[in-house]
Specification:
The chain is α+β, with helices and mostly antiparallel strands. It is 40% helix and 15% strand. It has four domains: 218 residues, 4-Layer Sandwich (Glutamine Phosphoribosylpyrophosphate, subunit 1, domain 1), CATH 3.60.20; 196 residues, HUPs (Rossmann fold, 3-Layer(aba) Sandwich), CATH 3.40.50; 75 residues, no CATH class; 64 residues, no CATH class.
Length: 645
């Protein structure tokens, strides 16, 4: 896990050094810069595999003709290294970085299909001589690791963070209004956009080739159904064993490293199963971490459940108790760490902050709900959207009505004439912040943009079973744009690498080859979040795998409660001065992004108890981020925890 930066199209050591300096939190252990007439590359290293100078980057092959800067981990690199040795390769280090170089040198871009891991990298190839140099950029299958680029008049600028792009001095400080609209609508910026105009994420599972003829982008992987032949029609016991073996193998692979590997333990089945498998495969006590709140905070708290599981599995467990004053103290560092505004991420920030005091790597259960239908509203879409257009005559509002006590309803009217549009609008109603109507009002737009228009490009499996379809849509949208983006930035603010064993291409192919009743047990009550795992029937096969490793009492207790912080309490308490200043008419008018009257009404409704915390929180975070990051010139350093004045 690291941070890297580069400029393709000229020599600029000072710019790349400034970019690397702005990301020292991502890689405090080592740094390096390489410059020639065509490219400038920089790297900040967090040493996890091969802690010796042999893992230094930028790294070149023995001939000095191919170089790499890289962020992430390749979990199957030991197998690939052994295979290459059998083919005659020799290695100077034990790092996975050198294996990447050797794979590329031998196989070209086709080597991407061999990788299992979390990664983003840039490979500079000058084997064909001056004028025929080549740059390859690539990002992992799920978009776990970031890679942001901007095409400028003086060349392509790329980095692991927006702050680094701004530090280059080559990217204008202008807000992308379309990104801002999707941020307000959904709570996170929809990729490939970023909050900075002209800066884009390389899409997940894509590569970009840059050479004298220009830039060319293409996918190397995508979601697909039934790639595991025959699994959808296999007997359930065989399905369970197939899933069991794949999850065990993924956890084993992701425990790799030359440093201590810990885990986030929320108390839910995903993280608990991962920790149980880690404990089974480790000769030492696993270090686990969870976040709790001060007594009386109005929020869900699973840390007692986590502590119970930790005791059962004999982990070395840390429960961080967060209060409003501590939240106020850490807010500036959190705001800077998220790299661009988001409605979420502070929970990940705090658990990462505590874990980073003891470990460099932590495993997370993110992805289990999306792939195995753990979110209760996934099942709620089946009656109205059963992957058959003729069933669309049923009103999806009936489904939203069943969830009215759980979710804020969508603000945009549903289009009852178009099946796909209504599917996407209904889904959007489950994952939004302000929604399109209020987002348009905040931006003084003449009319709102339908959520279906924003989501259509993320609908990777439109003809699949409804559970497969909504799972892929969630992974392409909410998970990538918000969860993974926030986890990466907030964990790296503390120089911590977070790995996600469920988000593995092998497991994804298995999950998208399962019959519906392997994900949802017939007769369960998945629309009741408070139901126990035994009662609900959600994530059936994953729950049945977990029964082998967790106590039976785990499955009969109350189900998913969430991983939420008491934002509303804090914003009416210790964060009230920050909220009032950030959303004051004077501040909003000076910033010039939002309608002053609309912001003031949102703030008033929240303080009167007529609006939830998420909208005002997002508006506050946007203003604080603009002050702390966007307005600040030159290389950026994350501040120490301190309260706002």
């Amino acid at each position: 896990m690291c941070g890297f930066a580069g400029i393709y199209g000229g020599s600029d050591r000072a710019a790349v050094e400034a970019m690397v300096s702005s990301m020292r939190h991502r890689g405090p252990d080592d740094s390096g810069v390489y410059v020639d007439d065509r490219v400038s590359l920089g790297h900040a290293r967090l040493s996890i595999i091969d802690l010796t100078p042999g893992g230094h980057q930028p790294m070149f092959n023995a001939a000095g003709t191919i170089g790499i800067v890289y962020n992430g981990e390749i979990y199957n690199y030991p197998e690939e290294r052994e295979r290459l040795i059998r083919l005659g390769e020799s290695f100077r280090s034990t790092s996975d970085t050198e294996v990447l170089l050797a794979l590329y040198e031998r196989e070209g871009d086709a080597f991407l299909s061999r990788l299992r891991g979390i990664f983003a990298f840039a490979i500079y190839d000058r084997r064909d001589g001056p004028g025929r140099e080549r740059l390859l950029l690539a990002r992992d299958h799920f978009g776990i690791k970031p890679l942001i680029y901007a095409e400028t008049p003086t060349g392509l600028v790329f980095a692991s963070e927006l702050k680094a792009l701004l530090a280059s001095g080559r990217v204008d400080r202008a807000v992308d209004r379309e990104a801002l609209r999707t941020l307000l609508t959904f709570g996170s910026v929809t990729q490939p956009h970023t909050i900075i105009e002209g800066a884009r994420h390389l899409p997940a599972a894509h590569k970009m080739v840059v050479d004298a003829s220009g830039c060319r982008m293409s996918p190397y992987w995508s979601f697909g159904v039934d790639r595991v032949a025959g699994l959808r029609t296999s007997p359930y016991p065989e399905i369970r064993e197939h899933v069991r073996d794949a999850v065990i193998r993924s956890v084993e692979m992701q425990m790799i490293g030359d440093v201590t590997v810990g885990a986030f333990l929320s108390g839910g089945v995903d993280s608990s199963l991962i920790v149980a498998l880690m404990a089974q495969n480790s000769g030492a006590r696993i270090k686990t971490y969870s976040v709790g709140f001060e007594t009386g905070a109005a929020a869900e708290d699973e840390t007692e459940d986590a502590a119970e599981i930790a005791a059962r599995l004999k982990t070395d467990h840390t429960r961080a108790v967060i209060g409003g004053e501590e939240a106020a103290s850490h807010l500036p560092r959190f705001v800077a760490g998220i790299d661009q505004p988001s409605v979420d991420g502070m929970n990940s920030y705090f658990v990462s902050h505590w874990a980073s005091q003891h470990v460099k790597v932590a495993l997370s259960g993110t992805g289990g709900d999306e792939l195995f239908a753990g979110y209760p509203w996934f099942a709620g879409m089946i009656p109205d959207f059963d992957a058959r257009p003729h069933s669309a005559a049923r009103q999806p509002r009936r489904f939203l009505g069943r969830l009215r006590n759980l979710l804020q309803p969508a603000e945009a009217p549903l289009d009852d004439t178009d099946y796909t549009a209504r599917f996407l609008e209904t889904y959007g109603g489950l994952y939004h912040c302000f929604g399109p109507v209020t987002a348009a009002a905040l931006l003084s737009m003449s009319s709102p943009i339908a959520m279906a228009a924003d989501l259509s490009g993320l609908d990777a499996l439109p003809s699949a079973d409804v559970l497969d379809r909504v799972g892929a849509l969630c992974l392409n949208g909410y998970t990538r744009n918000q969860l993974l983006r926030d986890i990466d930035c907030t964990s790296m603010a503390g120089s911590l690498e977070v790995r996600v064993p469920f988000l593995d291409p092998v497991i994804a192919d298995i999950a998208l080859s399962l019959p519906r009743d392997a994900k949802l047990r017939p007769g369960g009550t998945p629309l009741t979040p408070a139901a126990s795992y035994d009662e609900s029937g959600v994530k059936r096969v994953l729950i049945d795998v977990a029964r082998e490793f967790l106590p039976q009492s785990f499955f009969s207790r109350r189900g998913k409660r969430g991983f939420n912080l008491p934002f509303g309490d804090w914003m009416r308490g210790p964060l009230r001065p920050v909220l009032d200043h950030a959303l004051s008419p004077e501040t909003v008018r000076r910033r010039g992004l939002f309608d002053v009257a609309v912001v003031d009404e949102i703030r008033r409704q929240f303080l009167d108890g007529h609006r939830s915390w998420n909208g005002p929180w997002l508006l506050m975070i946007i203003e604080l981020w603009m002050q702390d990051v966007f307005d600040r010139p030159g290389p950026y350093r994350l501040p120490d925890p301190r309260p706002y004045a």
